[in-house]
Amino acid sequence: MTIDEIQLLMGYARWWDMTVDEIQLLVGYARWWDMTVDEIQLLVGYARWWDMNVDEIQLLVGYARWWDMTVDEIQLLVGYARWWDMTVDGIQLLMGYARWWDTTVAVRSAAVQRGVAIPDDTDYRGAILGLARLQKTYRLPTEELAHGRIYNISAKQGMNKEDFLEMGRVFMNIDHSSAMSWFETFLRAGVPEPEEAKEAYTNMMTIYKLAEDYERAWITAHKILQEDPQNKDVKSEMVLFQRNIEVQKKSGTYGIQKYYWKSAKDKSLEYYEALCRGDNIKNDILVNKDLICVYRKGTLPYVQYKEEIHCFNPRISLFIDVITDKQAELMREKAFPGLFRAQVGDPTLNLTSDERISKLSWLFDFDPEILKISQKVADITGLSTTYRSQYADAEAFQVVSYGIGGQYEPHYDYYDVRFQYGQNDMLNKLPLPLMGTGDRISTFMFYLTNPTAGGATVFPQVGVRVPPIKNAAAFWFNFDLAGERGDAKTLHAGCPLLLGQKWVGNKWIRQGGQTFRRRCSLDRYAEDPIWYS
Ligand SMILES: O=C(O)CCC(=O)C(=O)O
Ligand SMILES: [Fe+2]
Hints:
Bound molecules: 2-oxoglutaric acid, fe (ii) ion
Oligomer: single chain
């Protein structure tokens, strides 16, 4: 440091009432973290303001550098943290997540303000599990993900060594080839702790053994012995591997690599994931020229809507540009304060589930701006969306927000399948306005954002993938015209969100009010008057 800098610092130190020891500590940190004296003094100023000691400051600066934050951002964070009475550890966790998920500090703090719990260990495991699901669904290469790259988009911060190991652990139950690649990435990322190295090698040995690659299993076992020379189990495993190699040599199968990697296979999920990726879909506009775009009249004179027909049976349509940017924002803003974790099934049981990972809240037509949007739905569909305190024709808007990794696995929107599973009192537990209004005859779903990647709506029974496009809305009937049964072909899902934000607004229209609008037909093949009038 220059004499000038020292005197500046001493001046500050006096000002902040620090001892010489503290000053020298600070100077040391400053050198270490490559900060200017001005930055230090700013920080010390904040620290005093927030009543922190030098140790806490240095911890913070360390984190800040690690996460590549500016001093201003740190102070914002510390301000929030003190306000919410968090420890420095809590802050760093928060910063880590904030960076990782690329949300702003302000968004995070708003979440805290609304009583959303600060991330803890469970969230960490949840986050890792979510990443594993994304990697599997979208077939992301391990190396890319490890360095924070997804589809050529780079996160500010890649994952760290501990994350690599945790990904390996998680994949042991999902897919062995991915598990292997994470353990390899972990071991390449620098000298590991002996215990962790042992854990990685032990898992790798298990995988090789299951794949009957005894040569590699033996080599891996040998590495475990280097970490843990007394390990009797591993020694006896090695004898076994040796014996198996002999047997293979005799039978001529040695060196013929089968590479059988265990993976949890579920055919229906595999197809669902392929649809989410967009592999071999029937309705891709480039693949299938039959995808039809038409202009449709609404019930109001002179107004036409652009309709993309993604499927004819059942009819699944995407209406383009049916709300304005302003209306989409408005719905998100109004819904934000009320967001809570989405639940599935019986509302009295408070069930959350990995099947549906999102947050939601309800918007009612009592709000004139929301009413306008409901009326738009009525105009386009010709169905009634009138909300009443009893016998409502449609439900309130359900606004759903998905975080990265958020999804809704294949499901029906109607209830009647659940009757068959003995949950037929579901309909009796509904809020009063919906009692006796029948089932969800149709779904009208607005997309309120353009996700950067992932988040399509897919229909695995009919191989249809509807792309999420901001201000557009998907529409389909859950019931056939005969009206007595839910249509199984409407099975659908919200694919995991890979990057960006996904918000949707659901309007479920009830059977009750539609008697004269969508008449039942005795002829099950009758053309739907809603579509063909
Ligand atoms: O988010 C999606 O694409 C589908 C959402 C959905 O199906 C639902 O909320 O019922
Ligand atoms: Fe749905």
